[in-house]
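Folds abound. A case:
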Amino acid sequence: MIERRNRLAPQRFRANDMKLFVAGVSHKTAPVEIREQLAVQRNELVDLAHYLKWFGHFDEMVLLSTCNRVEIYGTTRQSIDSIKSALQLLSSEPGDLDPYIYVHKDAEAARHLFSVAAGLDSMVLGETEITGQIKNAYETAREAGLTGPVLNRLFQKAFQTTKEIRTRTAIGRGTVSIKSAAVELIEKAFSDDLANKSVMVIGAGEMAERCVQLLVKKGVRSIFVSSRSFDRAIDLATRCGGDAVCFGDCLFEMRDVDVVVAATSSGQTLLVLDDIENLMKARRNRPLLLIDLSVPRNIDPAIGQLDNVTLYNIDDLDALARQGAHARERELATCHQIIEAHVAALVERLRAENRRPAAALEYAYEIC
């Protein structure tokens, strides 16, 4: 787990004041091939968060890893360079990621979190899935003893702000998720004729399940579900009226499907070039549509160069998923007003806390 990270000695404190911060990369600053280097799998998250907290001398910390962003929220007395070093420790590949990393401090960090939680910073403006992902990341950190009074108050305020934005504006109405964009892409590829098409979904988690539900609604003729956990594949296939496929047999079954959607959190390349080259020979080069919704990617990008194979990854779906954004953009002014009201209260509280004696700050430092 931690073996793939570069083990560096922790840095010493360089500043005297406690700082709230967020450091990360997102779809706005880094392409998928960079984001996947930093992506953290669910079973690694707690151990890595504890390690980063120790390495960075962070007093509190929340680690967020989704398809579109990897972020560390925390409090520290460290410098920005030290914060960036901690984030880069997640990288599975050598190289300088500094050009892709952003760091925000104090009020700007809170402003960033409020915007992200409300879906204002998402690939799909106003999408609601990110709120649940942030709640899961926060609860995981809290239960692991990684948070304290600062982040506990900050994240609760973020959820309150998001609720107010959803209630007072239409920012989340009519949104197109990445998963629904993938299904729409399938529809367009086959001229809306899905009644005679078959789709294999690799994965049986939340993302795969949502894809399957959408495919069923669109009237796809046959749905196959393949997963390394055959029991989970059976469960999902049974609920959608499809067929479960052993993971070891999925390439064999791909000979007859029209579309393959990869939607796992395995963090591994599941479909490699040689296998798909052989598959296309068995298919006699009948066209195959591949959609990779995973970060890190499950499908070798070189496969997209094969004749009669069309491959889309999560970044390729961006434009399609943005449909309807113009109407939602009209709500942005109100959303930002709501956020700024909460940030203003935050700034005033921080100023008040900074005027207190240093000995009291450790106990009194709260966001709002």
In short: The two ends are 37 Å apart (CA to CA). The chain has two domains: 2-173+325-364, 178-321. The longest strand covers residues 19-26.
